[in-house]
Amino acid sequence: MRTQFPPSSAHGSPSPTDRRLSALVRHLGVGDHSASSMESQDPNPAISPSATAAFSGDSVFANIVQAPEDPILGVTVAYNKDPSPVKLNLGVGAYRTEEGKPLVLNVVRRAEQLIINDQSRVKEYLPITGMADFNKLSAKLIFGTDSPAIQENRIATVQCLSGTGSLRVGAEFLVKHYHNRTIYIPQPTWGNHPKVFTMAGLSVKSYRYYDPATRGLNFQGLLEDLGSAPSGAIVLLHACAHNPTGVDPTTEQWEHIRQLVRSKGLLPFFDSAYQGFASGSLDTDAQSVRMFVADGGECLAAQSYAKNMGLYGERVGALSIVCRTADVATRVESQLKLVIRPMYSNPPIHGASIVATIFKDRDMYTEWTIELKAMADRIISMRQQLFDALRARGTPGDWSHIVKQIGMFTFTGLNTEQVASMTKEYHIYMTSDGRISMAGLSSRTVPHLADAIHAAVTRVA
Ligand code: KET
């Protein structure tokens, strides 16, 4: 028998001081060195709290190598360390106001007030699948209010930790329950995609997407690569506002892709992180996904509210799996719960409550669409301003792609050395692939960026 901690006080129950002391003793791993100590009694000494590290004076983690910073989030780390007053962070895709400040949407503030004032709200755990209302409304947002798949209950939707968490849960589900474990991702794509899918256990291959020569879609390459992918393979598609290129297929090209995907029996997995940010319209930006659902076939979709509702740090998102029948969707959902429970048990309440509150109130929903459109429009106006500023400087090259590309980013075509020189000399921070977040730019900072690009293009090969 192990010694009982805390030892009983004279009155039978331990005093608060006893409790604190014994907690400290447990924490420090000292005390109880009697015959009944853990060391001598533990049935599994291999996992007992041995003191090897402490006694040898070296860390058990001594051989760990320093990991590199994340290629996107690491840009913010470097930016934060720079004392320059003119520094500009165009790395991470996060919206800034004309004043360069993070924006909390007015409608989000309103919803939060309502939530805080509602005394009936408690902090109980949500179900493993999250908030039911939130899930239903999220499915409507991406698939459309009149989607037959929703009416026929053929979609399993679960609340997840923003877009990334939704992708990860979807990938883990596929590894466990889908017969093909290869996912094709566009080249290039969001830097975290290959990591999320590899960590989940999928094998990652790429398909051609972007043509640097035209700064547009390599449609032929895309069709060839997906055309030669093995039947059943998973295909990751950016629903809109492709990151990092800002290049999306046209509606006709999407239709072509849909036919190819369906004829080959590939499984589409949509990443929808920018619904509303590409065109300013939530419906227009969901067209690609809706085309694939309209044909009755199956697909997955990961949604994020980070950008379109500005809920970045609240980590609000959803994974939907569209199935052939309601019966399959029910079983899929039951298995999604088994993926989620050991991962993070259940998702957080606050962000999903904000989204659900806004969606349920017609007036608030309208306010959201107006605020969203204003963000999208500001980004579009930044594109024009940057383009005009480069033209005014006579910067060599054709910069029309700045106004042609859509979404949060411009894929400038600047190379790693040029980016490095812009950071060194102008304190402009961006990812080394030449991507700039247009959402981080303002009328005030456009001239500085244009000067930096001009210098980089004319001085650095
Ligand atoms: N998908 C895409 C295509 C994407 O660009 C992001 C974020 C996400 C998913 C995930 O977002 P979440 O915050 O998990 O909902 N992209 C920006 C931020 C980041 O890298 O984390 C970015 O590219 O800057």
Automatic annotation (TrEMBL):
Record keywords, A-Z: Aminotransferase, Pyridoxal phosphate, Transferase
CC cofactor: pyridoxal 5'-phosphate
Q: Name one GO cellular component term.
A: mitochondrion
Stretches the record annotates as Disordered? 30-51
- Specify residue ranges for compositional bias: Polar residues: 34-51
Q: Which Pfam families match?
A: Aminotran_1_2
Tell me the GO BP annotations in alphabetical order: amino acid metabolic process
Q: What else is known?
A: In eukaryotes there are cytoplasmic, mitochondrial and chloroplastic isozymes.
- What this protein is called in its record is Aspartate aminotransferase
Q: Which organism is it from?
A: Nelumbo nucifera
Lineage, opening ranks = Eukaryota, Viridiplantae, Streptophyta, Embryophyta, Tracheophyta
